[in-house]
C-alpha cells in the first residue's frame, strides 16, 4: 500500500459496513480479503471508529480483542499500520467495565492476547506509552500495575517493551509501576517488580508526602502485607508526609492497627512514638470521638508494653496535674475515656515523660492552651499551678522563660473580682529570682515591675511583711535595662505604655505609667537598696529628671524628693530636674527644697568646677566620682 492517507481520517466516524464487522468478528480470513480487495473505499473503513452497541471500535480493535493475528496482518496489508494502530475507541474489557480511549494494543493486552500484542508492537509500531481516556497520562505498564494485571506487566518487561523504573506516569506525580502496586496493596505484583529490579525507594512527585516512596503509599492505604514486603526488601522507613507525620503517625491516624503492630515489631518505630502519635490526636478542644481514638492507640501501647515487658518510668504526681499518674492498664484507661480533663492530663503526662528528656518543647504549647481554657472556666488557681510548672519545664530544657503570662493572669483575676491568694501570687513573683530570669533584659525588668504594680492592688495589711520581703530582694538585684533605666526610672516613664499596647487586653486597665502606687511601694519597702540618683545612659537623666519631664502628678515628684533624690543633679545636657519641668508649682516646690544647700553637694560642684583631681588609690573613688559627675554642669561638653 503506497497510497498516502490524510491523518484527519484516523478518527473519522464513517459507518463501517456491517458485513466487514461480521467478517472480522468471525475470523473469516478469505472472505475478508476478497471483500477488502473489492471495496473502493476500504482504507476509509479501516481507519474508521464506529459504534457497535456500547462499544466504539475499529476493525483492528475487533481483531485485537479476539486475538485474530491473521486478520490483523490482512488489515495491515490493506492499510499502513501507522494509520490504524493508534485509533482509539470505547471497549468492554470485562463485563460491565467499559474503558474509553483504548488502542488495539491495549485491547489485545487486556484480553491477554500477547502473541498478537507482540505483532502490533513489532510490525505495527504500537506505542506502549500511549494512554487512554480513562487513564490519561498512564502508559500501558502503569495502567497494568494499577489494575493488578501481572500478565501484562510480565509481557511488557520481559520482552523489553517497558523499563521498570524509567516508565512513569505522564502526569505531575510521575509514578512508577511499583508505586501503584504498593498503593493498591498488590503483593504478588510487588514481589514481581522487586524481583525485576524496581527501585524500592523511588520518590515520585506527589504533593501528599515529602518522600513519596512505595512504602509511604502502602502505609497510607493500610496495606500491611505490602508494607511487610517492602520492609523485607530494605525500604527506607524514615520518609515523612508533607505535614510532618511519620509512617507510624499516619497509621495511627487511620487506626491501621495491624500496620502499627508490624512497625513496632520490626523496630521501624518505638512504643514512645506510638504514644506520641496517640497524643497528637488530642487537643483542648478534642471531641469525645477523638479522645476514644487516642485511647485505642494508648491501649495498644500498654498491651505491647506488657507483651514485651517494656516498663515506663512515670513522673511523680504534682499539683499541676491534680496529682494524677499515668494509667498502667487498659482498665484504667477505659475508666477515664469520657473525662475530658483527665484525658488531657493523661496526654500531658505522656508527652512530658517522653519529650522533656529530649529537650523537645513541642508539647509546651498545649500547656499554654490548657491554661487559657482553665481561665475561661474561672479556674484561675489551676491555671497558675500549670503555668508555674510550665515555667520550670522551660528552665529544665534550658530555654527562655517568661513572666508575662502571670502578669496577664493576675490582671484577669482582678478584672473578674477573683480574690488572689498572697501565697499563690508570691509563687509567681519569686520566679523572678530563678536562674533563667536573673538577667537585666527589658522584658524581665518590665514584668517584675508589673508584678509590683499588681501587688499594690491586692496587698492587705496582714500580707505586707511578705510583700516587703519580696520587693527588698527584688531591689537588691539592681536590675537595669539596656538603656540604663532602673525600676524607679520605669515607674515614672510614660513611654512604657506603648509596650503595654501589645499585651493582652486585660492588662491595660490595671497597669499604666507613670505609676505612683508602685513608686511609693518601692520607696517604702526597699529604700536602702535603691539608687535614687542612678542615671540612664542616653540622656544621663535620673528618675527625678524623667518625672519632671513627663509626669503630670506632683505627688510622684514629691515622693522622689522626699525620699532623698538629688534636686541639683544634672543630666548630660547640664540640666537639673528644675530645668526639665514647666510646671510653675513644681518649680517652686523644687526650689524650696534646695535651701539650705547640702554641704556635700556644694563640695561636689566645687570639685567639678575647679577640675580638682581625686586620688585613684582611694577606695571611694568610684562613688565619689559618680557623685561629682552628677553635679557637673559641663558634662555635655566632654560627653560629646
From TrEMBL:
Keywords: ANK repeat, Repeat. Gene3D superfamilies: Ankyrin repeat-containing domain (1.25.40.20). Coiled coil: none annotated. Pfam families: Ank, Ank_2. ANK repeats lie at residues 173-205, 539-572. The keyword Coiled coil does not apply. InterPro entries: Ankyrin_rpt, Ankyrin_rpt-contain_sf. This is Uncharacterized protein. It comes from Rotaria socialis. The lineage of its organism: Eukaryota, Metazoa, Spiralia, Gnathifera, Rotifera.
Amino acid at each position: 500500500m503506497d497510497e498516502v492517507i490524510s491523518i484527519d481520517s484516523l478518527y473519522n466516524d464513517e459507518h463501517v459496513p456491517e458485513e466487514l464487522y461480521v467478517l472480522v468478528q468471525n475470523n473469516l480470513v478469505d472472505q475478508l480479503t476478497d471483500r477488502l480487495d473489492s471495496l473502493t473505499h476500504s482504507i476509509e473503513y479501516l481507519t474508521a471508529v464506529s459504534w457497535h452497541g456500547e462499544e466504539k471500535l475499529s476493525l483492528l480493535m475487533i481483531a485485537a480483542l479476539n486475538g485474530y493475528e491473521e486478520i490483523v496482518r490482512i488489515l495491515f496489508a490493506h492499510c499502513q499500520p501507522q494509520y490504524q494502530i493508534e485509533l482509539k475507541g470505547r471497549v468492554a474489557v470485562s463485563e460491565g467495565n467499559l474503558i474509553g480511549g483504548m488502542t488495539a494494543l491495549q485491547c489485545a493486552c487486556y484480553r491477554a492476547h500477547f502473541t498478537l500484542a507482540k505483532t502490533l508492537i513489532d510490525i505495527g509500531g504500537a506505542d506502549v506509552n500511549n494512554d487512554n481516556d480513562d487513564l490519561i497520562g498512564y502508559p500501558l505498564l502503569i495502567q497494568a500495575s494499577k489494575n493488578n494485571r501481572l500478565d501484562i506487566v510480565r509481557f511488557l518487561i520481559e520482552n523489553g517493551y517497558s523499563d521498570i523504573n524509567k516508565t512513569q506516569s505522564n502526569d505531575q506525580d510521575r509514578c512508577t509501576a511499583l508505586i501503584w502496586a504498593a498503593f493498591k496493596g498488590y503483593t504478588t505484583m510487588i514481589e514481581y517488580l522487586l524481583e525485576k529490579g524496581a527501585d524500592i525507594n523511588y520518590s515520585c512527585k506527589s504533593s501528599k508526602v515529602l518522600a513519596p516512596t512505595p512504602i509511604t503509599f502502602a502505609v497510607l492505604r493500610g496495606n500491611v502485607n505490602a508494607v511487610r514486603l517492602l520492609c523485607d526488601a530494605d525500604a527506607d522507613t524514615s520518609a515523612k508526609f508533607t505535614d510532618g507525620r511519620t509512617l507510624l503517625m499516619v497509621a495511627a491516624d487511620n487506626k491501621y492497627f495491624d500496620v502499627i503492630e508490624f512497625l513496632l515489631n520490626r523496630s521501624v518505630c518505638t512504643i514512645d512514638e506510638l504514644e506520641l502519635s496517640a497524643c497528637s490526636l488530642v487537643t483542648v478542644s478534642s471531641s469525645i470521638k477523638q479522645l476514644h481514638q487516642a485511647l485505642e492507640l494508648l491501649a495498644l501501647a500498654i498491651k505491647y508494653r506488657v507483651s514485651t515487658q517494656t516498663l515506663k518510668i512515670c513522673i511523680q504526681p504534682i499539683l499541676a496535674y491534680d496529682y494524677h499518674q499515668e494509667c498502667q492498664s487498659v482498665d484504667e484507661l477505659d475508666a477515664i475515656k469520657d473525662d475530658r480533663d483527665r484525658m488531657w492530663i493523661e496526654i500531658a503526662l505522656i508527652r512530658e515523660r517522653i519529650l522533656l528528656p529530649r529537650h523537645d518543647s513541642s508539647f509546651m504549647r498545649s500547656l499554654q492552651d490548657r491554661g487559657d481554657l482553665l481561665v475561661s472556666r474561672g479556674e484561675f488557681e489551676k491555671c497558675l499551678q500549670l503555668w508555674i510548672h510550665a515555667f520550670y519545664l522551660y528552665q529544665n530544657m534550658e530555654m527562655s522563660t517568661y513572666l508575662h503570662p502571670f502578669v496577664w493572669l493576675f490582671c484577669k483575676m482582678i478584672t473578674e473580682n477573683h480574690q488572689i491568694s498572697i501565697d499563690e501570687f508570691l509563687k509567681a513573683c519569686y520566679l523572678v529570682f530563678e536562674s533563667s530570669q536573673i538577667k537585666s533584659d527589658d522584658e524581665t525588668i518590665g514584668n517584675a515591675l508589673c508584678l509590683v504594680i499588681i501587688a499594690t492592688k491586692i496587698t492587705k495589711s496582714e500580707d505586707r511583711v511578705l510583700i516587703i520581703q519580696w520587693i527588698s530582694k527584688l531591689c537588691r538585684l539592681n536590675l537595669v535595662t539596656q538603656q540604663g533605666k532602673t525600676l524607679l526610672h520605669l515607674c515614672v516613664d510614660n513611654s512604657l505604655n506603648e509596650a503595654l499596647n501589645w499585651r493582652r487586653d486585660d492588662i491595660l486597665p490595671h497597669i499604666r505609667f507613670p505609676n505612683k502606687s508602685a513608686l511609693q511601694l518601692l520607696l517604702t519597702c526597699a529604700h536602702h537598696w535603691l539608687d535614687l540618683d542612678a542615671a540612664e545612659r542616653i540622656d544621663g537623666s535620673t528618675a527625678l529628671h524623667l518625672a519632671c519631664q513627663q509626669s503630670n502628678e506632683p505627688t510622684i515628684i514629691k515622693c522622689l524628693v522626699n525620699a532623698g533624690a538629688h534636686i541639683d543633679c544634672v543630666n548630660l545636657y547640664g540640666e537639673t530636674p528644675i530645668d526639665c519641668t514647666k510646671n510653675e508649682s513644681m518649680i517652686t516646690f523644687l526650689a524650696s527644697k534646695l535651701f539650705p544647700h547640702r554641704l556635700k553637694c556644694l563640695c561636689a560642684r566645687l570639685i567639678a568646677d575647679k577640675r580638682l583631681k581625686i586620688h585613684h588609690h582611694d577606695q571611694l573613688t568610684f562613688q565619689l566620682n559618680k557623685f561629682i559627675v552628677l553635679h557637673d554642669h559641663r558634662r555635655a561638653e566632654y560627653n560629646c
